[in-house]
Amino acid sequence: MSALAKREAVKATDQPWDKAATGWNDHTRIIRDWLRDATRMMLDAAQLKPGARVLDVAAGAGDQTLDIARRVGENGYVLATDISTRILELAQHNARAEGFSQIEAHVADAQSLGLEAGHFDAAVCRLGLMFCNDPLAALTGARAALKRGGRFSALVFSGPQNNPCLTITMRTALNHAGLSSQSPSPFTPGTLMSLGKPGLLAQLLRDAGFAEITVQPIAAPFRLPTSRHYIDFLRSAAAPVIELLSALSELEKRSAWDDLEAQLNVFTTPSGWVGPNELLLATATA
Ligand SMILES: C[S@@+](CC[C@H](N)C(=O)[O-])C[C@H]1O[C@@H](n2cnc3c(N)ncnc32)[C@H](O)[C@@H]1O
Predict the structure, then answer these.
(1) Among 26, 58, 147, 268, whose Cα sits 20 to 30 Å from the Cα of 93?
(2) Which is the closest atom of ligand 1 to the Cα of 239?
(3) How many structural domains is the chain composed of?
(4) Ligand 1, atom 27: nearest CA belongs to which residue?
């Protein structure tokens, strides 16, 4: 194995999202249904025009990247970045399968993008910013990559009071992992709801130098036939939960998932399972 291949191999097993990459990609259809309206609002806010150059931060398997490519057209350009080599390989595969030659991929930590300054007309980040321990560094980097007047928009989870589904999931996973006594704050940097702290995201955008800042809540309920379908999604695609349960035996894991499924049944309705979720849509100008 070459030195480069070895380094890539280390990176590829290093990131929690490498382990969830295939699961996230395999669930694209239900993720797309879940985030359809929020994604449209995020891309509308980025004011994408044909021919625009767009930075997609924490692009994952590239579902929203493909939407961006459709909006900017063949004369546009999309740079999909992500810290996980494995998930970005899937984004590249998906872009090729759809015939998009205007999409490129670049493995990079959002907190140190290392991109040429003033290069992009717009930057977006769908459900990635909250995983940064230093979101200010990520926002500062995104702003630096934008042309003056360029648009930024991002989606993150809001706080625990409006995300009971996530709260139950994380509390149950912590319990089974034997970590409940540590009871970390839901706003701990780098965690799912870290940017849901009231006022925090707007303040970070101001600190990063953005103007014309708005932050608005968006309801994004997860609609599936049963809680079992949501568990199937979490088991393969939810890196933070997979990571928490990773040290358990197979028996202990099964017990954790069964417990979680039973608790999440509280969201079963006569017309299926509806997990309440709330996101924040942040928009700003560089
Ligand atoms: C919930 S997934 C969202 C992926 C995609 N944006 C979507 O909405 O389908 C979170 C993504 O954030 C990426 N991520 C987490 N921390 C990151 C960081 N520090 N820098 C860049 N990407 C990061 C993960 O690798 C993962 O692909």
Answers:
(1) 147
(2) 1
(3) 1
(4) 60
CA of 37 to the centre of ligand 1 (A): 19
Task: Work out the angle between the directed axes of helices 16-26 and 85-97 (0-180°, nearest 10).
Answer: 30
Residue 134 placed within a domain: yes
Mean pLDDT calculated for residue range 143-169: 97
Average pLDDT for the chain: 94
State in Å: Cα 195 to ligand 1 middle.
15
CATH code of residue 95 = 3.40.50.150
Please check whether residue 51 lies inside any domain of the structure. yes
**Mean pLDDT across the stretch 227-233?**
97
Ligand 1: residue of 40, 79, 83 to mutate (most ligand atoms within 8 A of CB) is 83
Q: In sequence order, which residues have a C-beta less than 8 Å from that of residue 64 and are 6 or more positions away?
A: 35, 39, 42, 43, 56, 124, 126
Q: What is the predicted pLDDT for the residue at 15?
A: 85
Domain with 192, as residue range(s), is 3-159+188-222+277-285
Summarize the confidence of residues 132-142 as an average pLDDT.
98
CB 124 within 8 A of CB 57: yes
Query: How does pLDDT run across 77-106, given as a tens digit for each residue?
Result: 999 999 999 999 999 999 999 999 999 999
| Mean pLDDT within 60-80 | 98
pTM over 0.90? The answer is yes
The pLDDT assigned to 7 comes to 37
Pocket test for ligand 1, best of 67, 84, 126, 233 (most atoms within 8 A of CB): 84
Cα gap 154→47, rounded to integer Å: 13
Protein residue with its CA nearest to atom 4 in ligand 1: 60
Q: Is residue 164 part of a domain?
A: no
Does any domain span residue 227? no
Contacting residues for 27 by C-beta, under 8 A, at least 6 apart: 233, 236, 237
Measured in Å, residue 82 CA sits from the centre of ligand 1 at 6
Three-class DSSP category at 1: coil
Q: Name the residue with the closest Cα to ligand 1, atom 10.
A: 128
